[in-house]
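hi! just following up on the protien thing from before. the input was this:
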Amino acid sequence: MGRSVPLALWILTGIVAGVTLFILVSHSGTVRTDSPPAVEPGNLEREILASVGTHVLYASDAAFVRAGEGAADEWIEDQLLACAAEEAGLENPAISRFVQERAKQLYLRDLMVEHVIGSVNSPVEAEVRAYMIANPDLFLIERHYFQIIAADSAIAESLHTRLGWGQNFQVTAQNSSLGQKAAIGGDLGFVTGGEMLAQGLPMGIALLDGLSEIVHSSIGWHIFKVSETRAVTDTLRVMRSAAEDLYNSRIDAALDSVLLATENRLSVEVVH
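and the predicted 3d structure came back as:
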């Protein structure tokens, strides 16, 4: 594919594209201006909503993203700052080109993902039940989960060691956990493995028996414990979870199919 792109550049791309889209998309409703929009010379079909020098924001483009009142003023301010950056010699042409290419890539990617999702049928009840029967450990068994959330890995390691030595999990959760359930010993109640997977947790937690390893997430370091299991009691709740899991797996499979077919048609290479 070409040389790899540094992480900082990906972050910069995301910030630039995200801020640009957020400014327009976050304003719902019809675009309004204090004066009638001008008309682009030589193109009577495209109304100009705002302009800064030779840079133009078309009313039709703003309408695409349902930009609301104030979008033109924000665009003008952003464009003035962009022009000032150019005049000050701050622009890196290579980064500007990459940002433009990356923004188009993300736009087309999202269009394809939306197209694939629209082509995938939601599972019917019979399919969901069959899926649950085929994955009994995830959808026909509930586990009684307890959780401790620690602020950093060092604290989590210390707590995990003490729990491994036999320290009471619920008392430790009450004294040390940052989770919302700390006051009741970190008790999450009876949950199926499929529901834990839906929360973004790994398969090892979904099929847990006893004390887990430490699991990192965006909110901290987690330690789980399963004290007992039982047959599912709320079938309707679990069916909703299973239906979502089955639907998502179909979407993943469809996306993988598109990726594989496209990769087979094109030359793909990673140069280190």
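Residues 1-13, 19-37 have pLDDT under 50 and may be disordered.
Residues 235-265 form the longest helix (31 residues).
cheers
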